[in-house]
Design goal:
Blueprint (H helix, E strand, L loop, with lengths): L3 E5 L3 H13 L3 E5 L2 H7 L7 E5 L7 H10 L5 E6 L4 H10 L3 E4 L4 H16 L14 H13 L6 E4 L6 H10 L8 E5 L5 H9 L15 H5 L4 E5 L6 H13 L1 E2 L8 E2 L3 E6 L3 H6 L5 H7 L2 E4 L10 H16 L5 E2 L1 H9 L5 H15 L4 E2 L20 H19 L4 H8 L3 H10 L5
Parallel strand pairs: 1-2, 1-3, 3-4, 4-5, 6-11, 6-12, 7-8, 8-11, 13-14
Antiparallel strand pairs: 9-10
Helix pairs in contact: 3-4, 13-15, 16-17, 17-18
Length: about 425
């Protein structure tokens, strides 16, 4: 993997030489000769590595190192120092700097140190093995930020359209974090009624209410020592938002019907496709909870904005689908790949996965053909089909309803919103086409 590096030295020749060396091996380098500019450039999540001279005009290297080490996540800090300044560099090692190099800096030693940092970050997250593909620049930037934030313990908000893979990214961040040995608990806030949300979040004692025959740990206690992923967090009822905020601030939860609190240690990763700032303006979401959740934010781009990711994702899903079927994975014909690349993917990666899995079942032989692809659940009509406009409209209506329901995991209110109709109108259409339960 390539790293984002802040390189600071007031010797122009050395700055240029070290910058070229680092860029030649694939890293992205911001070279600065002024301590004040370097200090201002330090922002959370911007750099993986900071390499700075100790003696600089303006703010010196110690000021830069201190600020870098206070960021969350903190970049790796390497100091460059003259022999007489080694004691001050050692002080910075005690505060968390990674290493110091005496001048004149040996190029091989610097590259070896940066390589060790690179291996430590890259080895922590085997992305494609977990289904996260990043060929497009927009997705690569998203993943670089995720890799940095995996080292942090602060709450994280993942924003993106339905189906872009927010839970997959959350699982990958957990697997790359210091909490990887702990539990990962995934919960969908839109799937529960307001009456059950407290029990699901905080657990309940035996006999707390009618039907509570056994005690329940709840999401927060079940995730203690690990990561809790709250999908569709915008759908939390207001009362539950207040209690969740208090639990995050105090680290304590009180199960429903219990007479004492319990301590929990959870890293919260929340996700939504909604505009939470707009929800706050409308009085539907607590601003203080949003501040808490948005310790850091990752925005996952929709699939239509990263077509470079479609071919490798399609091949990955096809390989997995074929393995489940006990078949050798077929190749994808040029025509089929062209169809995949030209589709607008309203359901994002989830829709692509469904299309490929369906095609894997329909495909015959060693090559997956365009005719095997079912966009919206229906095949494209053949040229010989009757040109009946009403029948075509019916096919399209059914396909769009099925797609909207698939994109929202069967949530009819959300599906109606996607379709631009009322929930009642959707219900009427489903009954008309025989799609209702």
């Amino acid at each position: 993997m390539s790293l984002d590096i802040l390189l600071v030295d007031d010797e122009p020749t050395l700055l240029a030489a070290l910058g070229d060396i680092l860029e030649d091996v694939g890293h992205r380098v911001l070279p600065l000769a002024d301590g004040d500019r370097a200090y201002d450039a330090l922002q959370p999540g911007r750099f993986d590595v900071v390499i700075t001279d100790v003696r600089l005009p303006g703010r010196d290297g110690h000021d830069i190192a201190r600020k870098a080490l206070q960021l969350c996540p903190a970049p790796a800090v390497i100091l460059m120092t003259a022999f007489g300044e080694v004691p001050r560099a050692v002080e910075m090692l005690k505060l968390g700097a990674r290493n110091y190099l005496t001048k004149p800096v040996d190029e091989d030693t610097l590259l070896a140190e940066v390589s060790r940092i690179e291996e430590g970050l890259g080895g922590a997250m085997d992305l494609e093995e977990q289904g996260v593909v990043a060929r497009a620049p927009e997705m690569q930037a998203c993943i670089r930020l995720a890799q940095r934030l995996a080292r942090s313990d602060l709450p994280l908000l993942i924003h993106g359209e339905t189906g872009v893979g927010k839970e997959v990214l959350a699982r990958t961040i957990h697997a790359s974090s210091p909490r990887q040995g702990g539990p990962f608990v995934a919960a969908n806030c839109s799937a529960l009624s307001p009456e059950l949300i407290d029990s699901e979040l905080f657990g309940h004692a035996r006999g707390a209410f009618t039907g509570a025959h056994e005690a329940r740990a709840g999401w927060l206690r079940s995730a203690s020592g690990g990561t809790l992923f709250l999908d569709e967090v915008a759908e939390l009822p207001p009362a539950a938002q207040a209690r969740l905020l208090r639990a995050l601030e105090t680290g304590e939860v009180r199960p429903v019907g219990a007479d004492r609190t319990e301590t929990v240690d959870v890293r919260l990763v929340a996700a939504t496709h909604s505009d939470l700032d707009e929800r706050v303006k409308q009085g539907e979401f607590r601003q203080d909870l949003l501040f808490r959740l948005r310790g850091f934010q990752i925005v996952v781009p929709p699939l239509r904005q990263r077509p470079e990711d479609i071919p490798p994702l399609a091949r990955l899903f096809l390989q997995r689908a074929a393995a489940r079927l006990g078949n050798a994975p077929p190749e994808i014909s040029d025509e089929a790949m062209g169809r995949l690349l030209s589709w607008h993917w309203p359901g994002n990666v989830r829709e692509l996965k469904h299309v490929i899995e369906t095609a894997a079942v329909l495909s015959e032989g060693a090559v997956l053909q365009a005719r095997d692809l079912r966009f919206g659940g229906l095949p494209e009509p053949d040229e010989g089909d009757a040109l009946d406009l009403r029948a075509a409209a019916r096919r399209l209506e059914i396909a769009q309803i099925r797609r909207a329901l698939a994109m929202t995991d069967g949530n009819r209110s959300k599906a109606a919103t996607l379709l631009g109709i009322s929930r009642k109108h959707l219900w009427d259409l489903m009954r008309k086409h025989g799609l209702s339960d």
